[in-house]
Amino acid sequence: MNDFIIRIVYDNHCYKPGFLTGFGFSALIFNNIIKSYFLFDTGGNGDVLIHNIKKFGINIEEIKNVVISHNHHDHTGGLQKIYELNPIIKIHVPKTYVKSFVNFFPKANIHGISEFTEIAKNMYSSGELGINFKEQCLYLQLNSGEIIILVGCAHPGLERYIIKGREIGAIKAVIGGFHGFNKFSFLKGIDFIGACHCSAHVDTIAMNFPKQFKRICVGSVFSF
Ligand SMILES: [Zn+2]
Ligand SMILES: [Zn+2]
């Protein structure tokens, strides 16, 4: 049995037939251990996001939790449409952004996160990292103990999320926006490298890690 199923529902590069693209990133995670959906980030446009989720045959009402990596529009822009369909949703955000989320989504259950925190069974936030700009990543822990990292833009530096993740388990996969990350030695030993969205060095990563690099497309499904 797979512990987690990750469906890519938003990215600005490739997309499979029938899916839509736009600037931003979002992944829909099914935690098969507790049989529950978690949306990680929401892309920049709610119509695109909802189209892609529905294309997978999933009802928005089934999504009870959203994890927001950071307060940039290409990660939060789709949230309004999700909220309209499901206003009592729980939104896990870095503590720094709680006030603005309470203002925009008054009926939602806003969970502000500062430190490393368990969000649900086998799912953890890194806590808010970064000095001038705060962001969190999401760790999914497989029953084997290995870790899948989901990352929004990695503004604090992807290596910081990798280092912190290694405190709880070996890193099996990293998926999301790597931004300007170029300290490639930190990727050694990781089986699945899904650099997408804002990653500046996708081609170099693909060249250096030809077996580990995975092309992330809207419409892709990855099971772990
Ligand atoms: Zn960003
Ligand atoms: Zn971004």
What does this structure look like?
This protein is of the alpha/beta class. It has one domain: 4-Layer Sandwich (Metallo-beta-lactamase, Chain A), CATH 3.60.15. It has six helices and 15 strands. It has helices spanning 46-55, 73-76, 79-85, 98-104, 158-166, 202-208, and strands at 4-10, 14-15, 26-31, 36-40, 63-67, 90-94, 109-113, 117-120, 123-125, 138-141, 147-151, 171-177, 192-196, 217-218, 221-223. The strands form three sheets. The chain has a seven-stranded mixed beta sheet with strand order 7-6-5-4-3-1-15. A six-stranded mixed beta sheet has the order 8-9-10-11-12-13, with helices on one face. A two-stranded parallel sheet has the order 2-14. Strand 3 and strand 4 (36-40) form a beta hairpin. The longest helix has 10 residues, at 46-55. It is globular. One zinc ion binds at residues 25, 72, 74-75, 152-153, 177, 197-198. The site of one zinc ion has 4 residues, from loops.
